[in-house]
């Protein structure tokens, strides 16, 4: 490739630890041309983010970096002094991260934050304002003037990510690095964001690197894909070839772990089969229309925040031993509904449990447990795994030991005395799941429990949830924007749109015969994201 934007050869990165230097990237090579999109995939800890940090020179002090070549737009990155490095970061490359809310200043209108980039590049106030409005329009946000005057918390997740993309492109970079840019977004917004990036790359001619654990997303929006395993590039090729005809066993294993949105839920060999047969009497046929006896009944649930209606007259039941999937776009009310059922927020309407006391009182609340998306935020950073599980057993009235609870949930004894920051993402989420099963729990609310995990960690956690349900007969309210996962685990699926439950029926019917236009759009977007580029 003549005059590549990115040229990397024999890049090795090692981190300093108590055990000495530990390699995170080994003899890594990469070439990307102008206007090309390159995808990096792999499990957590495979070296994806380390590769991005090496390109931006944001590696922590004490890190050992060697490379035969590491250049972006012809600039030798490793040889830059501090002043040259600042200029390089300001003009040559830009990064879009997973959490747009963390990248935006909550005390400034988003338009002022975009304008700040133009001001730093020499524009006067009027020119910066005009460029800001043009940038907001470029990322397909209507009413640019109104959007620019809003604060980050007044925007949806998809709108925030569009603003971050506008900021990133304000400096006209030669390279755009996208690090898990759509993890927290529903399939429709995810498709819109990625289509936006594709269009802007064609229009402006920058190169891009998409870092993700979502192999179908990368394959759908990148010309070439590289697969990292333990710091080494084990496979590289055209996106369609890597996804549809993988050569390396590790790539084949990643693809095998993907949930298939096109498969009926009873067809899978893993969690699907277990979840489909759970908690039903032996003589009950496994028909799509079979609905278990109600455990939870939600009637006319309405929730308002500061004058805005987040949920409007939502009614449904969750059966004993049933998994009810809940999908919808960001801001549709999914998490608010989960918190309401768990008794963690006030609401109008009723949530009743078919339990002995038949009342929504103190005795019921501890029996409803929640597994959140971000295990880091839900675990006490100063408590060891042992203390977290012991406290759960005490509060939920369990009779098992910490060791047996850990064994049931796939946590080894060596992890019990570690703090959360010493665990991987998958291990933290297992601790969160174990905590929910410290005693007898009839209902567990899973709020995006696997969205931040790579596909193999995701598959293992779904298997774990299936095994725990088979043993205990627990019901799940499973909230997710990943429609393939929802189809894999759910008996029935409800679709939320703008705070209303617009469709609720058997999982296969939702995906094969959606009735509402919004449901059809969601399913269509999810299918489109799983088509390889060029196919």
Question: Would you give an account of this structure?
Answer:
The chain is an alpha/beta fold and 535 residues long. Among the domains are: 101-172, no CATH class; 271-278 and 293-378 and 442-529, 3-Layer(aba) Sandwich (Rossmann fold). Helices cover 37% and strands 24% of the residues. The strands form four sheets. A six-stranded mixed beta sheet has the order 7-8-9-3-10-11, with helices on both faces. The chain has a six-stranded mixed beta sheet with strand order 16-17-18-14-19-20, with helices on both faces. Strand 5 (69-72) and strand 6 (75-76) form a beta hairpin. It is globular.
Keywords:
single chain, 535 residues, alpha/beta, Rossmann fold, six-stranded mixed sheet, 21 helices, 20 strands, 37% helix
Please render the helix and strand layout as text.
Blueprint: E1 6-17, E2 20-32, E3 37-41, H1 48-56, E4 64-66, E5 69-72, E6 75-76, H2 82-91, E7 93-96, H3 100-103, H4 110-120, H5 125-138, H6 144-148, H7 157-169, E8 175-179, H8 187-204, E9 207-211, H9 215-221, E10 224-229, E11 232-238, H10 239-244, H11 249-256, H12 271-277, E12 294-305, E13 308-319, E14 323-327, H13 334-341, E15 348-353, E16 368-371, H14 375-378, H15 385-396, H16 402-408, H17 425-436, E17 443-447, H18 455-472, E18 475-479, H19 483-489, E19 492-497, E20 500-506, H20 507-512, H21 517-529
Parallel strand pairs: 3-9, 3-10, 7-8, 8-9, 14-18, 14-19, 16-17, 17-18
Antiparallel strand pairs: 1-2, 1-4, 1-5, 5-6, 10-11, 12-13, 12-15, 19-20
Helix pairs in contact: 4-5, 4-7, 5-7, 7-8, 8-21, 12-18, 15-16, 15-17, 17-18
